[in-house]
Amino acid sequence: MQTLALASIYLIWGSTFLAVRYVLEAFPPLAMSGARFALAGLLLLLYIRKPATRKQWRSALVMGTLLLSTGTGLVAWAEQTVTSGQAALVNATTPMWIALWGIYRKGYPGHATLAGIGLASLGLLSLMQDPGSLNIGTLAILFASLSWTAATLLSPHLDKPESSVQFSGMTMLSAGGVLTVLSLLTQESMTGPVTSSAVAAWLYLVFAGSLVGMTAYTWLLRHSNPGLVATHTYVNPVVAVALSALVGETLPATAGVAILLILVGVILLTVKTGPNARVFRSYLPLVGHPER
User: Fold this and answer.
1) Angle CA 83–88–90, to nearest 5
2) What CA–CA distance (Å, rounded) separates 184 from 181?
3) pTM (2 decimals)?
């Protein structure tokens, strides 16, 4: 069961970046993300059927805005100009921002953490040295990663229901509302004719990415070692880049170097022991939220 659950979050969450690209062939990014999270959240809440307080709903709105509206919605928006593989690589730097916050709060983190931050930073810089790689899409993903980090650090201070699955449903439903409002305000329009591949990709994001992936992840948090669960942080970008290359997306010439540097850096940040590794693992339930 553990192997199956790990394989699910490795492959499903790694493939959602490419699925977003196919959805964008027909549907605008904010509208499709809003509908996706609204449906997934509603299905989870219908399954759980537990009441929540107004304060818990306010917490869900805060997390839905920072995690999914900004954190994931912006990634979908950025994939209009950035390949799915490149989006996954830039998005993989979230543990670096968490570690930097740990240094600010706790001081010197240890040699392994500093090396991890340095390598991940070099990987990001090498990716951006390629002509055309540093564009508005890349900057949007960096901002999304910072928003995800802010939500991760804020989460322990919010009032939440006991069930993590219930709060996930509340968060997704709240994000669906925020993204729908943003889509209306920006007057999004269809990006192309509705195709079977776009609809199939959207359904994949709802049922595989949000429901199956989240169920597997929640089960792993309760039945497996957090350090083992954290490995998806560096497996997902590899899967995303491999799929991106498989479908013929053009990757930056420096992608190979970036993959190596970012993944080794993230491994050091998530696996090695030390103050910042403990900080990262304490926030693991949010760092691993569906398709970052």
Assistant:
1) 95
2) 5
3) 0.83
Residue 111, judged by CB atoms within 10 A of its CB (0-12, 13-18, 19+), counts as exposed
- DSSP at 252: P
The ranges of the chain with pLDDT < 70 are: 108-109, 127-134, 225-228, 230-231, 234, 270-292
CA distance 289 to 91: 13
Contact 66, 150 (CB under 8 A): yes
Is the distance from CB of 147 to CB of 66 less than 8 angstroms? yes
CA distances from 265 to 6, 104, 122, 124 (A): 21, 19, 9, 11
Q: Which residues contact 97 (CB under 8 A, 6 or more apart)?
A: 145, 146, 149
In this predicted structure, what is the pLDDT of residue 100?
77
Q: What is the DSSP string of 198-218?
A: HHHHHHHIIIIIIIIHHHHHH
